[in-house]
Amino acid sequence: MEAQLFTKQPRNIPKKELEQISSEIREDILMMLSEAGSGHPGGSLSAVEIVVTLYFVKMRHDPRNPYWPQRDRFLLSKGHAAPLLYAVLAKCGYFPREELKTLRKLGSRLQGHPDPTKLPGVEIPGGPEGIGLSEGIGMAFAAKLDKLDSRIYVLLGDGELNEGEIWEAAMCAAKYKLDNIVAIVDRNGIQQDGLTEEIMPIEPVAAKWKAFNWNVFEIDGYDFDQIINALNQAEQTKNRPSVIIAYTTKGKGVDFMEWRSEYHGKVPDKESVQKALTKLKRGYS
After folding, report:
1. 245 forms bridges with which residues in the sheet?
2. How does DSSP classify residue 218?
3. What gap in Å lies between CA 217 and CA 231, rounded to an integer?
4. Residue 99: exposed, middle, or buried by beta-carbon count in 10 A (0-12, 13-18, 19+)?
5. Nearest-angstrom CA–CA distance, 123 and 75
6. N vs C: which end of the chain shows fewer Cβ within 10 Å?
7. Is 193 buried (19+), middle (13-18) or exposed (0-12) by CB count in 10 A?
8. Beta carbons within 10 angstroms of residue 262's beta carbon
9. DSSP percent split of the chain into helix, strand, coil, nearest 5
10. Do residues 89 and 121 make contact, with C-beta atoms less than 8 angstroms apart?
11. pLDDT tens digits, residue range 114-143?
């Protein structure tokens, strides 16, 4: 695939095209996981529209020059959702789409969690929950010191908010008025072993972030207009970091996976995957 250039803003991509891209990304996620026979479908599928909007509408980045200093950065703190990041990077042209079939295979650049030393477009190693926001704050600081207008976007899992490091980082970003960082919480309500509110309740989520002096937006994580509007408002906010709490569905787009905690880290059999792919190609709502 020839690399596309996303170095200018704004990019007015029709909603229908964004919906089509999102459907294709879901198909690639399912294909990758089926080929690998392992991985994390639920949290990869839940955040598709958010990551598609960042890469195709909002962020400045250049697949031909992945380390362009003026680029915006996307940090996948919930590293187990690597199939989502890989599918989007391939769609943008960072590497050939055919390579997606090598997910989790011996010698592949597409590890179970992202590795920036192996794959262009990956900013941080994924794995330990809770570290992404701290790493993003470091990048936001660096951009300020270098007088760059780069913006940093960090995707967090809602179960990840159990980690104390998240709240230490939240205090730090507010103290130093880092208005160039945006945290996005994939609020799908389910973590590895069950419902977030049964394992370790995190509500009231919005009130917590407000108490840490963050600018807070609550949106439907599948409404492109709401996603874009929140990102635009966050960019206009001065002297405060912003967080977008995006309400989503674990396993979105595959009816038998939706709201099922077992599909956090379980891949369905090939026959079930094929049925899901057929539905997606017909258009799932």
Report:
1. 185, 218
2. E
3. 9
4. middle
5. 6
6. C
7. exposed
8. 14
9. 45, 10, 40
10. yes
11. 999 999 999 999 877 899 999 999 999 999
Closest CA to 255 of 44, 78, 47, 45: 45
Rg (CA), the chain: 18
Rounded to whole angstroms, the Cα distance separating 233 from 266 reads 37
Beta-bridge mates of residue 251: none
272: which 2 tokens?
């079930």
51 and 85 Cβ atoms separated by less than 8 Å? yes
3-state secondary structure at position 272: helix
């963050």: which residue's tokens? 214
Task: Give the SS3 label for residue 185.
Answer: strand
Q: Cα 155–266–42 angle (5° rounding)?
A: 30
User: d(Cα 117, Cα 277) in Å, to the nearest integer?
Assistant: 32
**What CATH class has 15-282?**
alpha beta
Distance in angstroms (rounded) separating the CA atoms of residues 17 and 240: 33
Q: Is residue 145 pLDDT above 50, yes or no?
A: yes
Opening angle at CA 45, ends 89 and 90, nearest 5: 15
Using an 8 Å Cβ cutoff, are 232 and 257 in contact?
no
Indicate the pTM of the whole model. Answer: 0.95
Across residues 15-27, what is the average pLDDT?
A: 95
Q: What is the pLDDT of residues 74-114, one digit of tens each?
A: 999 999 999 999 999 999 999 999 999 999 999 999 999 99
